[in-house]
Design a protein that fits this description.
The protein has 477 residues and is α/β, with parallel strands linked by helices. The protein folds into 3 domains: 31 residues, no CATH class; 325 residues, Rossmann fold, CATH 3.40.50.1820; 91 residues, no CATH class. The chain has 15 helices and 17 strands. Strands 1, 2, 3, 4, 5, 8, 9, 11, 12, 14, 15, 16 and 17 form a 13-stranded mixed β-sheet that branches. It has a two-stranded antiparallel ribbon with strand order 6-7. The chain has a two-stranded parallel sheet with strand order 10-13. Helix 4 packs across helix 5. The radius of gyration is 23 Å and the shape is globular. The protein starts with a helix and ends in a 5-residue tail after the last helix.
């Protein structure tokens, strides 16, 4: 009977008989669309925080989510919606490696189920976080039929917005909480579009009305041309290319290094020289080893096709040589853990829907159809939002130079305070600058994270918590 009631149409959810059934559902640790998870394989004892997992149906797709209540005051703390980049990277990556309250014990791993430990400097210390596996095909999200798998920047943003409307309808107790949208890396494209959908929906009287207050973007893809052009300038500033070569490239390319045709022009030749110099640099963090290659190419070209096709997934097992370390080793345990049947059962993943969980699915059926969201940011700058944008200063995927360049192109911005350091544990953790737009209430804080790569909270987890904790409560970073 309860199952039949739960499948009734959306418009009947307020009927008397549904509300009568709610106490029965709660007593079984179930809620609309999800269930409470108290124990996880690899974690010793009951989880010290409240975790709910479940699915929301959106356009013949089942989008999987993890909701972790604030460990301080869930009734009044903000709700942060978070999804990862890629596109196609599971938000489990965010929970375990970046901003969540769990972490793998990597050094003690001896085989079997990986050990999970409680991580104290989680963003859930100060906010509720709704983690979404989006777009469909990411993490544990799946399509009801194959025709629903193809996605794109615009489609993903629309579906995420629809997901939020349905999730908050099922969780009305959080509608009054302040809402922030958060994303990193490639999702810097779709996240601002989601924010625009929320604002436009509120203006059009769409129910429920979401209490949107702002958004947060880590190393965000924003304008393709600006991002790509900034890489040459960044390489020069970091000493990866010489002064003469940089000047030659700048003059011959007229300052534009993106999509230069392969020919014999001086610009193309100079860019080839630059590419060769940084070929064996780890773009995610320029100071870390590029471990996807067994050894640096001597001729600048590898003939190992499999490494080219799946370089990020090449090393998927912990190191056998104690002194040899690669950042990809950290990801190995997530594949072992998330593909364990007992883990999927504990998370209430539907049996048989995901046969091979991937941290980042490189074969996702996805069309990148938005090349710039600068105009979206300009539109949002008139809406009185609070915004935090940040970069790792050792990231060559989305260099901090490019992010600062597009921020300067926003309309009618004034500087509230100039470039200055921010601190964590008494040490400089990065630098920041704050902008505002007169008359709109719009505030944008831009911050760098010292020594961090792509994405910053994975490299400087404690420092990024301090940054977020101050910003989300409207304190200066």
């Amino acid at each position: 009977m309860i199952e039949k009631l739960l499948t009734m149409s959306f418009s009947y959810r307020n009927c008397m008989i549904i509300w009568v059934c709610l106490p029965l559902l709660s007593s079984g640790n179930a809620v609309f669309g999800g269930s409470i998870v108290k124990f996880l394989p690899g974690f010793d004892g009951e989880l010290p925080f409240k975790l709910e997992t479940g699915y929301i149906t959106v356009a013949e797709s089942e989008l999987f989510y993890y909701f972790i209540e604030s460990e301080l005051s869930p009734e009044s703390d903000p709700v942060l919606v978070w999804y990862s980049g890629g596109p196609g990277c599971s938000t489990l990556n965010g929970i375990i490696y970046e901003i969540g309250p769990l972490a793998f014990n990597i050094t003690a791993y001896q085989g079997g189920t990986p050990i999970l430990e409680y991580y104290p400097y989680s963003w859930t210390k100060t906010s509720n976080i709704l983690f979404i596996d989006a777009p469909v095909g990411t993490g544990f999200s799946y399509a009801i039929n194959s025709s629903a798998y193809p996605s794109s920047d615009t489609k993903s943003a629309e579906q995420t917005y629809e997901f939020l409307l349905k999730w908050f309808t099922d969780h009305p107790q959080f509608l009054a909480n302040q809402l922030f949208i958060g994303a990193d890396s490639y999702s810097g494209i779709s996240a601002p579009i989601v924010v625009k959908h929320i604002i436009d929906g509120a203006d059009a009287g769409v129910f429920p009305r979401l209490n949107l207050k702002g958004y947060i973007l880590g190393c965000p893809r924003t304008v393709e041309t600006i991002n790509e052009n900034s890489k040459v300038t960044y390489c020069h500033r970091m000493g990866l290319i010489s002064d003469p070569l940089f000047e030659q490239a700048r003059e011959s390319c007229n300052g534009s290094y993106y999509e230069v045709e392969a020919d014999e022009s001086e610009c193309y030749i100079n860019l080839q020289k630059i590419d060769k110099l940084i070929h064996d640099i780890n773009k995610n963090h320029i100071l870390e080893p590029k471990c996807t290659w067994a050894s640096p190419d001597q001729d600048g070209e590898s003939d190992i096709r499999s490494l080219k096709e799946e370089s990020e997934n090449f090393i998927l097992s912990p190191p056998r040589i104690p002194d040899f370390w690669c950042h990809n080793f950290n990801y190995a345990l997530s594949y072992i853990w998330a593909n364990d049947i007992s883990v999927q059962e504990a998370l209430n993943v539907r049996v048989g829907t995901i046969k091979d969980w991937k941290r980042c699915d490189k074969k996702l059926n996805y069309t990148m159809n938005v090349y710039s969201v600068l105009d979206v940011h300009r539109y949002l700058s008139s809406k009185g939002l609070q915004v935090l944008v940040y970069n790792g200063d050792h990231d060559l995927v989305v260099p901090n130079i490019g992010t600062q360049d597009w921020i300067k192109l926003l309309n009618n911005m004034t500087v509230d305070f100039e470039w200055r350091p921010w601190f964590a544990d008494g040490q400089i953790a990065g630098y920041n600058i704050k902008y505002s737009r007169r008359g709109s209430g719009y505030r944008l804080t831009y911050a760098t994270v010292l020594g961090a790569g792509h994405v910053p909270q994975e490299y400087k987890r404690r420092e990024c918590f301090d940054m977020y904790d101050r910003w989300i409560h409207y304190y200066p970073i």
